[in-house]
Structure formats: structure tokens, C-alpha cells
Amino acid sequence: MYKLVWGKLALLLTVSLFSTSLPTSASDVCISKPYNIASRNYGTSGSDGSDGRPGRDGVSGQSQSIVANGSPINLDLSGKDGEDGEDGERGSSAYCSHQSNEDHDIQAASGGDGGDGGKGGDGGDGGLLTVYFNNLEELKQIFVRASAGEGGGGGRGASGAQGCNCRKKDWEIEKCKGTPGSPDYKCTKKKYRCTDGHDGSYGSNGSNGRKGDLGRLKIIKSKETLAPDIFKMTVPISELASKQFNLSKNKWDTKTGATALLAPGSVINDEYQEFDKRLEATFALQWLDKQPITRFTESATIILNDNNQVDITFPEDLWIDGNSKTEGNVTKYTLSYAVPKKDVTRLAVAEFAGAGENLNIKLVDLGGRSDIINTQFRIKYYVQDSSERGFPDNQKVYTGDITPELVTRDFNRFTLALGKLPNISEASRAGAKVNIELEITRTLGQRSAKQTINWQGTIRNR
User: What are the φ and ψ backbone dihedral angles of 183, each rounded to 5 degrees?
Assistant: First the structure.
């Protein structure tokens, strides 16, 4: 019986010597030492408090369409108030375990931060009231309350929790080497310190919600319901030339004095809209570019504006040159050229040849559209000499524009007569090493882009 009990105790002591759990009492300090050495602190930091949930936004007021007939009408289209945000939760305090004298500095655990307060919900907007009428005086019988909902209050931030304080600020530990009584036996003392843990910080208060907007009024001198707007279309470019597109929209005039039109005491935005007329237009595109329109997979957007003209917008990565003409209700857009932007700046050096006045550099347009794109060149030309120390040194010979008379274009190939530029022919003897920086400006219609080519080479014998 006793052998069995002592056997179990021995097993428990063996397991506890290898345990990494926190010490539970002063008698456990020697067992917990491996954990403290690894963590370099004592105690367990507190958890941060949860943030408060934001308040829900208020529901906007109902929008309604009515026909004024001279009978009294009472409407409430008010937006609802936003809800208050919840308060944050307080951080939890640090757990301060037993502090022992370690052979290193230690840091006490800190308290958890307080949670932030939740944002207040935004107030709901007042609803939209649309009134059909024959006689403007009939609106005097309509009382409407389309007030804005108030924003909810922000929740309060919570306080942080307390951290652990060191029970002992500093201590000394003596360490000895060698065998006691022998000449090599030596002991030294070293001081260590403990730093108090920080208290958790306060959470921030949540912001208040925004007040909603007052409801709005639209009036239409008619008893017929308006047709919906079809003023904007996004169409694949490949389909633009195959048919005509019909667009329409309701044109409104913006005025002030809404409250004077309605029954006294009505609450609504004083700015209102009155129906003017129905706009209808047709858009057609004529494609003149030599490339087939079916090659272009991008989409364009056509929009009917208040001038009863249709505007077309192409993607940013597509360069377009064309013009628009409107006759009556028909807008016709003639597209002369279309070039993908990626093909605009694809010039590359093809050849560097000649010397002296006959020196030239040839470029090829890999995008293949130089017949329609305007191209201008600017150059920085350097000749590499050897300095007195024997190291190569770039000497700038010429910087400036290359005028059009020095540029020859053969479809998509350019020849730049560099030898005709000032100072270059004298410095461009056979065998000279040159560095060239070409800045190329490409323009089509209202679009422009720059490309820079850096090239190095040696002038060959004539």
C-alpha cells in the first residue's frame, strides 16, 4: 500500500519538474524558473475590452407620388432617428503571479486597454414627394412632414485596467565558479530590476451619427405618369456602328420656395424640382478607322445631356480621334482613328549608322500607327571621352529638339539626321562611344504621351 502511494508521488514530482505552467505558490518557484526565463516577465497581461457596436442608421422616410385634386392631404414622410452606439467594455486587469528573484530583468504584466465606443447611427433622410397637378393652387391643400432623422449619440470609451506592480524593484544574485576552497573559486554579484506593468489606456468615444437630409419635392403639371429615364447606355464598341441608339430623359428645372407651395407648417427642403419637358435623342456612330471595329472589345458610354445632345466617352486606354455633329434629335459621331494606348509608345531603335554629318539613328514604331500619330523628338547626345585619370567621362555635346526637317518618316520607320545637329558632326568621329537619350512626344487629338529611349553605341568607320 505505502509503496503504491510513494510511487505515485514520485511520478507526480517527475512530471512537475518538466512542466511549463505558471507557479501556483512560493514552493513552486524553482519549478517555474524555465517559464520565467523564456518569457522575461511575470504575470499575465489583461485582455483589451471589446469595442461598442455602432448604432443602426435610421430608416429614410417613404417616397410617395400623389395627384393633387383640391382635397386636403396629410403626409408624414419623416426619416427615423439613428440609434446610439454602445459603450466599449472595460479592459481586464493583469493577473499578477508570484514574483521571484530571477537572473535577468523582468517586466510586470500590463492591464488591458478599454474598448472604443461605437459610432452613432446616421439619421434617415426625409422621403421624396412627387405631386401631379393641373392647378398650382391645389398644392396648398397638401400638408407634408418630411423631416430629417437625428443622428444617434456615440458610445463612451471604457477605462483601461490596472497592470501589475513589482513587489520587489531590484535584487542581487550571486554566482560562483570553481570548487569551494580552491584558488579558482570565484563569486560575483549582479543587480537586476523589475519594471511595473502599464495600466491600460482609455478607449475613444464614438462619433455621433450624421443628421439626415430633409425630404424633397417634385411637381409635374400633368396627370400622366412620366416615362422612366433611359439617358445612359454602356455599349461594346464593336456594336456601336451596327445600329442607332435611342435615349430619353425627363428634364427638370430647379427652383426654391417649396414650403410656400404647400400647406402652412409643411417641413421639406425649400429647393424643389419642376418638370420641364421630355428629351429624346438618337445616337449613331460612323467608323472610318482602317482597323475593323470588331477588333475592339472595350465598351463606350453614351449619355443624353440637358442640351438634347448625346456625348460619348471612350475608355482611358483607348486613344480616339473623331468629331460629333447634332442635327435635330440625331447626334452623329464620326470616328476617324482608334489606337490602343499600349501601342502609342512602342518606338524602338532599329539602326545607328554613319559618322560626322551623315550620322543618323533609325527608329521603328512597333505599334504601327505612325501614319496618324503626331511624333516629336528631343535629344540629349553625349560622347564618352577618357579623362586625365584614365576613367571614361560623358561629355554632353547637344541637348534640344530635333526639328521636323531633320526627321524622315517612311510609314512606321523614322530616320533622325543627328549629324546635322550643332556640334554633333565634329564630336562624332569613327570609334567614339556615344550615349543617347531620346524623349519622344506622341499626340493624337487631345491625347498626348511621352516615351524615353536610352541607347549606347559606337560610331563605326565610314
Answer: -60, -25
